[in-house]
């Protein structure tokens, strides 16, 4: 009996500690959401107002600003580069998984290291190149650069998923007279559908969040949401209500995506697999 | 009949080879074109006196020599290293602690775990914006609480002593959850029997940490160090939005300095040289850490086996 109460007490203590930690980390998020619902004056009031009549004026202002267009740009660039990367990535990941050639470990390592490439090093040559090609400030330019990072990421993550497919399934399909390409498209690819979804979501998040490349390669037409946010901050200065509203709108897709991939965070955020 | 099979086998092989070409060729062509060409090009630029609007002129290591002689460059390198090391120390310490706290199996923990991982999924730029609001010297909440607790308000973003801490706080807030994630995964791989045995043997907490947890946490810790140090060495977004690199250059990172040389001073050659300096530092670091992770230069098998 006493042992049991001890266990319960310990659990409650741990839960309270965990709750405290989580709340501490959530606090800035909550604060920004609150700020987005306040009037200009309420934001500057100290001690801070926790209970107030929320206003949607900030959201209304943002809905009628360039920011929505920039958000559209962001989603477009992210979607296209993710799609392209999944095609390239799944083909090559399957290749590395099924036909390990000599030195493929080194090639994989090289591909992996592309993800660690400092964006500043990538962006300078591309800035010059795209300027001479007249591609600056286009969606295409951003898609091309994001594909470098997304393809290398896709290959890495998808290889893990392909490795997990039992080889017997493919052998059986081959005995049934499937060609190698048919085995891939009809047997293996459908089996890694969850892997494709996970990979896609991480590619989308990473592309949505990217800042330096977008800042460098765009000026007006192709500006993405993070660059738009930075510009808002410069132009609006202390109009934090509107800035917060824009940040909240921008965060929504990322938060939704995160909930979807909550069990695959390790795979996505580092280069590993999880059992 | 025998001939027939032979033909079939040969056709199979031809199909297989053609398929392999499809698997590898598009990606290899794309990556080589998109990576090697620009990188080679930017190495070349770094050897030219290339100011936008003027004809480039070959100067060998001139840009590098100019950088290495400039006090600003070394200051910025120091700032970058200081941010990296400080963030690393705090994030690892805090991450381990929180990881242990969150590893308990308690109902409701699943929800908390999703919530605590949210910061690292946000754009670093957005994190920077958040903290710009929170650290504002007149109406920011951080100063409000400091004053409530009897401390003096701090000019977080403009005071030479504290500006760097604004950057560090933002990074710690955003990326400690990442360390927690890896620690949790590491703790999850410890066999239940091992922990029970330790309880039965009445092992001291230190013994338990040293002999049970540490071996299983080695890989997550090294991975966390690897990823966090690479990311902080390349840091750009947070100082850009939070302090703009100021006051002076006290929060300017190498990436920010490179960006400024490109866009404010139009010195393309110098910017390339700086960016290559970053590439080299990151590479050296990755190689050292991967040497520790796995003696052979390949993806460590252990990482695959332990589930990390």
Automatic annotation (TrEMBL), chain B:
<dbReference type="GO" id="GO:0055085">
    <property type="term" value="P:transmembrane transport"/>
</dbReference>
<keyword id="KW-1003">Cell membrane</keyword>
<feature type="transmembrane region" description="Helical">
    <location>
        <begin position="211"/>
        <end position="230"/>
    </location>
</feature>
<feature type="transmembrane region" description="Helical">
    <location>
        <begin position="265"/>
        <end position="290"/>
    </location>
</feature>
<dbReference type="Pfam" id="PF00528">
    <property type="entry name" value="BPD_transp_1"/>
</dbReference>
<keyword id="KW-0813">Transport</keyword>
<feature type="transmembrane region" description="Helical">
    <location>
        <begin position="73"/>
        <end position="102"/>
    </location>
</feature>
<dbReference type="GO" id="GO:0005886">
    <property type="term" value="C:plasma membrane"/>
</dbReference>
<keyword id="KW-0812">Transmembrane</keyword>
<keyword id="KW-0472">Membrane</keyword>
<dbReference type="InterPro" id="IPR035906">
    <property type="entry name" value="MetI-like_sf"/>
</dbReference>
<feature type="transmembrane region" description="Helical">
    <location>
        <begin position="114"/>
        <end position="134"/>
    </location>
</feature>
<feature type="transmembrane region" description="Helical">
    <location>
        <begin position="162"/>
        <end position="190"/>
    </location>
</feature>
<comment type="similarity">
    <text>Belongs to the binding-protein-dependent transport system permease family.</text>
</comment>
<keyword id="KW-1133">Transmembrane helix</keyword>
<feature type="transmembrane region" description="Helical">
    <location>
        <begin position="21"/>
        <end position="41"/>
    </location>
</feature>
<dbReference type="InterPro" id="IPR000515">
    <property type="entry name" value="MetI-like"/>
</dbReference>
<protein>
    <submittedName>
        <fullName>Sugar ABC transporter permease</fullName>
    </submittedName>
</protein>
<feature type="domain" description="ABC transmembrane type-1">
    <location>
        <begin position="77"/>
        <end position="289"/>
    </location>
</feature>
């Amino acid at each position: 009996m006493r042992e049991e109460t001890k266990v319960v007490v310990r659990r409650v203590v741990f839960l309270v500690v965990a709750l405290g930690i989580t709340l501490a980390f959530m606090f800035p998020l909550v604060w920004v959401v609150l700020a987005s619902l306040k009037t200009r004056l309420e934001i500057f009031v100290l001690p801070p107002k926790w209970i107030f009549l929320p206003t949607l004026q900030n959201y209304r202002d943002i809905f009628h600003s360039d920011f929505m267009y920039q958000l559209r740009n962001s989603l477009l660039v992210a979607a296209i580069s993710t799609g392209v990367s999944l095609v390239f990535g799944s083909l090559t990941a399957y290749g590395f998984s099924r036909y390990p050639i000599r030195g493929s470990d080194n090639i994989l390592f090289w591909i992996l290291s592309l993800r660690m490439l400092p964006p500043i090093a990538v962006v300078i040559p591309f800035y010059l190149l795209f300027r001479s090609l007249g591609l600056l400030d286009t969606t295409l330019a951003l898609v091309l650069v994001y594909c470098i990072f997304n393809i290398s990421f896709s290959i890495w993550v998808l290889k893990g998923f392909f490795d997990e497919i039992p080889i017997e399934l493919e052998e059986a399909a081959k005995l049934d007279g499937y060609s190698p390409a048919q085995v891939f498209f009809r047997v293996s690819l459908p089996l890694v559908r969850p892997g494709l979804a996970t990979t896609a979501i991480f590619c989308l998040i990473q592309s949505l969040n990217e800042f330096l490349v977008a800042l460098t390669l765009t000026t007006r037409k192709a500006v993405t949401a993070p660059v738009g946010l930075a510009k808002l901050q410069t132009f609006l200065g202390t109009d934090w209500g509107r800035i917060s509203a824009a940040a909240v709108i921008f965060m929504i897709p990322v938060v939704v995506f995160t909930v979807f991939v909550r069990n695959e965070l390790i795979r996505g955020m580092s280069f590993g697999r999880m059992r | 009949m025998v001939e027939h099979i032979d033909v079939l086998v040969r056709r199979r092989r031809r199909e297989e080879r053609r398929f392999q070409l499809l698997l590898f060729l598009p990606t290899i062509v794309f990556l080589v074109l998109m990576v090697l060409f620009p990188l080679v090009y930017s190495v070349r630029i770094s050897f030219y006196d290339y100011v936008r609007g003027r004809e480039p002129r070959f100067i060998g290591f001139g840009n590098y020599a100019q950088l290495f002689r400039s006090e600003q460059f070394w200051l910025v390198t120091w700032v970058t290293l200081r941010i990296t090391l400080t963030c690393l120390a705090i994030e690892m310490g805090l991450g381990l602690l929180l990881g242990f706290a969150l590893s308990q199996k308690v109902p409701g923990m699943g929800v908390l775990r999703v919530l605590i991982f949210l910061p690292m999924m946000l754009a670093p730029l957005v994190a920077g914006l958040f903290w710009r609001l929170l650290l504002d010297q007149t109406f920011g909440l951080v100063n409000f609480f400091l004053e409530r607790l009897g401390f003096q308000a701090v000019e977080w973003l403009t005071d030479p002593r504290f500006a760097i801490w604004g950057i560090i706080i933002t990074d710690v807030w955003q990326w400690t959850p990442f360390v927690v994630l890896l620690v949790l995964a590491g703790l999850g791989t410890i066999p239940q029997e091992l922990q029970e045995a330790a309880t039965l043997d009445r092992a001291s907490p230190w013994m338990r940490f040293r002999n049970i947890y540490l071996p299983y946490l080695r890989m997550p810790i090294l991975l966390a160090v690897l990823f966090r140090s690479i990311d902080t060495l390349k840091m750009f977004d947070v100082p850009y939005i939070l302090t703009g690199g100021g006051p002076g250059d006290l929060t300017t990172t190498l990436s920010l300095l490179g960006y400024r040389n490109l866009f404010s001073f139009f010195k393309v050659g110098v910017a390339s040289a700086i960016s290559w300096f970053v590439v080299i530092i990151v590479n050296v670091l990755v190689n050292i850490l991967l040497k520790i992770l796995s003696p052979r230069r390949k993806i460590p098998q252990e990482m695959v086996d332990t589930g990390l």
